[in-house]
Design a protein that fits this description.
Beta-Lactamase, Heat Shock Protein 90, Rossmann fold, 3 domains, 6-stranded antiparallel sheet, 5-stranded mixed sheet, elongated
């Protein structure tokens, strides 16, 4: 009935749907092109900003060094003449003033701190014979730097006579004694403006070591830009010292802000309007065509009605036979059909479905995963007990891992009316460790899911604590619930395989009875401990202690890959099951991959000879040559493609045999999309 309604809706509004699809298709192309152009424009401007900013910074630095060196040159002539050159200080200072636009006046401070010479005298007469010992903001730094024989520059100061300037002091020593300083007032604005005026689309802001702005050009406003959109550099007046560091900021002016131009916005709007017109024209064209076709179909339908009824009856009979055959084969296959069901359901999750359809889809997923989890748990616990499971070593943050799992189960608890509380708000500065993240996730997940499953009223509390001791991070994890609880005499039984306590909850709460058994084995395998405390009807508390070696913060791997479009890859799927091929083909289409398909080993070898593939998905069990033989042959003839084995056979022996044969990696069915895309990102990022 639901299918009939959908078909009726589709037939009634087919033209409208196709018209809208056409409109949104062209609109999407326009929007993507728009943002691509904007992004390229933005990247170009950022590169231009860095280049021009670096050149301007170098020019400013040369101006500062040149002015200071000119003053130091006057000092050198006085020292080399053993003080005799002081008689020429006036003409020499006049020459310096003419040659250096940023030097506004030159003066000499004797060893007692008195200014006994200044040029030009006007308008600086107020500063002549000034005793700087009376200036608390001036004398201490002047005296300290003079004793260290260092050229010093002050912050941006208000001058005694008037105006503002930097005061540069160059100590003078001869006759084995400190004689005073050759000093100057400097303002670099005119020379800086001469350079800045050549870059009118940019703004400049420079602050001294105290944070005072002493130079700005073109009304800089760094607040409107992001950090990476402002070229920032430390500017030191003296190349050999880090004192008196200034802050140089170079940016576009506010009118040249990194955003789309009005013309670009107009073109986008025009493109969307044109897309609308195309959709509208298509609608009217198809409406006329559909009406004509409808009139012809009315006459044909009367003549073919009886024959269609016969065909439908045959289809129903064939469908009944096919259903019987399908149910027969289902008894002999478990993982392969489950792979198809779960993969198809993942694909359908991205479709627009009715609420009732989503509910059915969810039920299908849960039922399939319940059966798959049962099979997986049996294999998993067998691996642990036989010693075949190996722990991986990856860097991860246990607290972040737990936090993500709690977020997943918060919604499930909320649906049941439970309150799920944590102490996460009190936790700061968590550590990164080296260990098996997937096994750690499984421990946390099993315990939290059990708490939600067996609690119908009340609350669940998650407590997490970590402490670093001698390079080891010790983790205490505790989860408390107000659920059905456990009889103290049964506390050890719950960790046994295939055990669920039988006091009226066995049917109410589904499960294989393997979750806690696996959890305990994993905890002990990782060198930890797990304890439970409970009373019947009063809830339960599980405590887990784990420890991991910590990782140096510099070695943290916090970046995550974003998988890009992989449509350029040549890909081959080798599988005798066409359904598996189509499902994998559908999943790969999300990365714009259009694979070739080979139904057996011989066809795969022929395709590999005629075409160079970047990636090959190789089913393991096929009639004729199996996947292991094909991979071995391909490696012998020098095939360099990335080969990923995939099969319902999840045994360690099969995986090791595949890797030994030459496979780069091995995936087990059902293949989850996220796992598949992560593998692709590993080899093709």
């Amino acid at each position: 009935m639901l299918t009939a309604k959908l078909n009726s809706f589709y037939k009634r509004y087919k033209i409208v749907i196709f018209s809208l699809v056409l409109f949104f298709f062209f609109t999407a192309i326009s929007v993507v092109s728009y943002y691509r152009v904007i992004n390229e424009q933005k990247q170009f401007k950022l590169r231009q900003l860095e280049i021009v900013g670096s050149l301007t910074y170098q020019d400013f630095k040369k101006i500062i060094y040149h002015n200071i060196h000119s003053l130091e040159g006057l000092r050198d002539r006085i020292v080399e003449s053993n003080g005799n050159f002081k008689t020429f200080i006036k003409p020499d200072s006049e020459r310096i003033l003419k040659q250096n636009q940023s030097i506004k006046f030159v003066f000499f401070i004797d060893s007692t701190g008195v200014i006994n010479f200044i040029n030009p005298l006007e308008p600086n007469r107020k500063a002549l014979n000034l005793d700087i010992k009376k200036l608390s903001y001036r004398y201490p730094d002047w005296f300290a730097n003079s004793k260290d024989t260092l050229t010093n520059i002050t912050s941006w100061l208000d001058l005694t006579q008037s105006g503002k300037a930097f005061l540069v002091d160059v100590p003078v020593y001869y006759n084995n004694a400190f004689q005073g300083t050759v000093s100057a007032g400097m303002d670099f604005k005119s020379q800086f403006d001469n350079i800045s005026s050549k870059q009118n689309i940019f703004s400049i802001l420079i602050k001294d070591n105290t944070g005072k702005t002493f130079y700005s050009y073109n009304e800089p406003n760094p607040a409107i830009f992001k950090k990476n959109q402002v070229y920032v550099k430390k500017l030191r007046p003296f190349s050999n010292r880090s004192s008196s560091t200034w802050n140089f900021e170079f940016m576009y002016d506010s009118k040249s802000e990194l955003k789309a131009t009005p013309l670009q916005n107009f073109i986008l709007a025009l493109s969307i309007f044109v897309s609308f017109l195309i959709g509208l024209l298509y609608y009217f064209y198809m409406l006329d065509k559909y009406q004509l076709k409808k009139d012809k179909a009315v006459n044909q339908r009367l003549n073919t009605l009886n024959e269609e009824l016969k065909k439908e009856r045959l289809k129903a009979e064939e469908a009944s036979i096919a259903k019987t055959q399908f149910l027969s084969h289902m008894s002999h296959e478990i993982r392969t059909p489950l792979s198809a069901i779960l993969s198809i359901s993942e694909i359908l999750e991205g479709k627009k479905l009715l609420a009732s359809e989503k509910e059915f889809l969810k039920l299908m997923q849960n039922s399939s995963r319940t059966l798959l989890n049962l099979v997986n748990n049996i294999l998993h616990i067998d691996k642990i007990e036989s010693g075949k499971i190996e722990l991986t070593k990856e860097t991860f943050n246990p607290f972040i891992t737990l936090k993500h799992i709690v977020e997943i189960y918060t919604q499930a608890a909320k649906i049941k009316g439970l309150q799920l509380t944590t102490n996460f708000a009190d936790i700061e500065d968590t550590k990164v460790v080296m260990g098996d993240i997937s096994r750690t996730e499984q421990i946390f997940t099993n315990l939290i899911s059990n708490a939600v499953k067996f609690t119908d009223v009340g609350a669940i509390t998650v407590y997490y604590e970590e402490k670093e001791v001698n390079g080891q991070l010790q983790i205490n994890f505790r989860i408390t619930d107000t659920g059905v609880g456990i009889d103290p005499s049964q506390l050890e039984v719950i960790f046994e395989r295939f055990k669920q306590l039988d006091f009226g909850i066995t049917k109410k709460h589904q499960g294989s009875g393997l979750g806690l058994a696996i959890t305990k084995m994993l905890v002990e395998l990782m060198g930890g401990t797990i304890h439970v405390k409970s009373k019947l009807g009063e809830g339960a508390t599980f405590k887990v202690f784990l420890k991991f070696p910590t990782v140096d913060p510099q070695n943290k791997k916090v970046s995550r890959k974003k998988f890009r479009n992989l449509g350029h890859l040549n890909v081959l799927i080798v599988d005798d099951n066409l359904l598996n091929c189509r499902i994998l083909e559908k999943i790969l289409s999300k990365k714009s991959i259009k694979p070739d398909i080979a139904k057996d080993g011989d066809e795969a070898l022929l395709k590999c000879v005629s075409k160079q593939y970047d990636l090959i998905f190789m089913d393991v069990h096929m009639p004729g040559k199996d996947g292991f033989e094909i991979v071995q042959h391909l490696r012998k003839i020098g095939n360099k493609a990335i080969i990923l084995g995939f099969s319902a056979d999840a045994t360690k022996e099969a995986i090791e045999r595949g890797i030994k044969a030459g496979m780069n990696d091995y995936l087990t069915k059902p293949i989850e999309q996220e796992t598949l895309f992560a593998i692709l990102g590993k080899y093709f990022f």
